[in-house]
Amino acid sequence: MPKAPIALRQNTGAEWSGRIRQLRERLKLSQTLFGHRLHSSAMAVSRWERGAQEPTSGRYIELGNLAGDPECWYFWERAGLRSQDLMRVMPGMQRRLHDSHAHKFEIARAGSGKKRRTLTQALAVLPLLKVVAASPGHKGDSIESLGDAPVESMIAAPRDWCPNPESTSCLMVRGNSMAPTICDGYVLAVDSSQTDTNELDRKIVIAWNEDAGLTVSNYRRYDHTEVLQPENSQYESITFSNAASKWKIIAKVLWWIAKAP
Length: 261
Fold this sequence. Notes:
The protein is of the alpha+beta class. It has one domain: Umud Fragment, subunit A. The protein is 23% helix and 28% strand. The chain is built from seven helices and eleven strands. Strand 7 and strand 8 form a beta hairpin. The longest helix has 12 residues, at 15-26.
């Protein structure tokens, strides 16, 4: 029998592939259910476990969220993040997490002034993706799946702001057609598990189109017609039929933040 190519033999024995398989087995999930938790297919999970294809940085962050302490640190480092990077976004953290869910952290100090209060707060650590969602009238990045986007840094947010932490990420906004609600340069937190249009009427969403790329807008439903409606009346709405639409709703906007001028 001919020997496998050297590169294939090395990939098959890669540490990351074994770690992924061990995590899935520890969670007692099939490749299909495991992939569903990570917004991926069973085929993708199979490729990871065989060492044929390494997960993206976004998928590694989701793997860390599933793994819990201390294994989360391995997956997050594979995503290109260092533990000191995480500490910087959570300066009050004095001990590593001991919860079974990696996205929860305990903050011991809070408040300002001479008298300080003691506060315990569960946080979600969210990836800030290196992608831009444009408001109508501008062009956003063309990437369709947020899970495949490169990660720029991390953002810590209250856990109760993120109903599905494993599906929540952050991205930047370009353009002012959603002003004054959402302006150019704002950071959006979005949940990619909330894509059912029956539940998104009058919500702010991230939509994707091959030509326009990622777009942030108000979503409206009128019988068989869907509308992406800007907040700023100077911009035109985008109307399309849900029967033969080239638009795809890929996430719900949960909240947003902006730097002070």
